[in-house]
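Chains adopt folds. We examine one example:
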Amino acid sequence: MSSIAPFRALPRAARRPRRTLDWRVRFGVLALIWGFSFLLIKVGTEGFAPFQVTFGRLLFGTAVLAAVMAIKRERLPRGARTWLHLTVAAFLLNALPFSLFAYSELTIPSTLAGICNATTPLWGMALSLVALSEDRPTRVRAAGLGIGFIGVLTVLGAWQGFSGLDVTGTAMALLASFSYAVGWIYVRRTLSGTGASHLSLAGSQVGLATLQLAVVTPLFTSLPTSVEIVPLLAVIALGALGTGYAMLLQYGVVAEVGPTTASMVTYFIPVIATTAGVALLDEQLTWNTPIGAVVVLAGAALTQTRGPRRRSGASPAATGTGAPAGPSGPRRPAPAGPAPADPAGTEPPVPTPADHPLASSTSPAAPVTPVACTSGARTGRP
């Protein structure tokens, strides 16, 4: 995710958004929305085909974002190259993972889907070793990667030969989380510095994903013979809340407290998804599922820790990053890497839903993406 860009020459008071609710309340609402998204997917697939659930989700999410863009008079991004990259990002961060989660929940519990979604930071860490030369792991982060995948094997019951587990559905859920991680890296490499606002990029991305599903859905599904009200309401809530409103919520939380704190929502999602599945859908849990989920989250948290910062050998004047000289000589140069998120002086990222979602957590050791990852990508959204 790209470097954090400062606001354009606005007075400091004008940069800080005015909020009517404390950020902790909005943080909790965001965790609840994304945690319940897996339950809503499950309910939606009881009345509609998975592609129809995904298309409806994207359609209602686009409607919310488009309405906000119209109210704020946001302009669409410019440039054919930007739109090409947004098209790819829409596929990797929205169309593909949303569809995979919908198909996976035909055969696996929503609790398992929510836990699989929590593996997005692990996939992101593994991929960054190859794709992001500036994001080298520390021993702690490498250990977190190993611990996380041990947790995955625990959730899946590897010592039992994965008996009683639908391999196809589980593989789809894990592939959806992997897609979030790939999309995050793609966005970080291609969509930084476009000049468009984060809201404009996010709305355009979700809109493009809607068009992709509008093409695919009629090819693989037929219109339902009847429409049941509960699955329909689930799809509407999944789109309007889980894909539209949740993105706006997290944008506000990141703007106020920074991406590091906002990314902690990732660790509440599987807990809420599991609680909702057991309490409202009567899904069964064996001992290894919650234990493995805790191990997965512990590993994911370790992969997001900061490594030791390097000191720049160049002078502050040469690099432009050092602090001004003090009475006793030049101060220590500023640490290398992106500056800490300042909610009043930096422009925050807009996550996608991840919905999972990674996309869904933003790594504190890595730069931040300017577009959403819905459900993405490192926010681990469903």
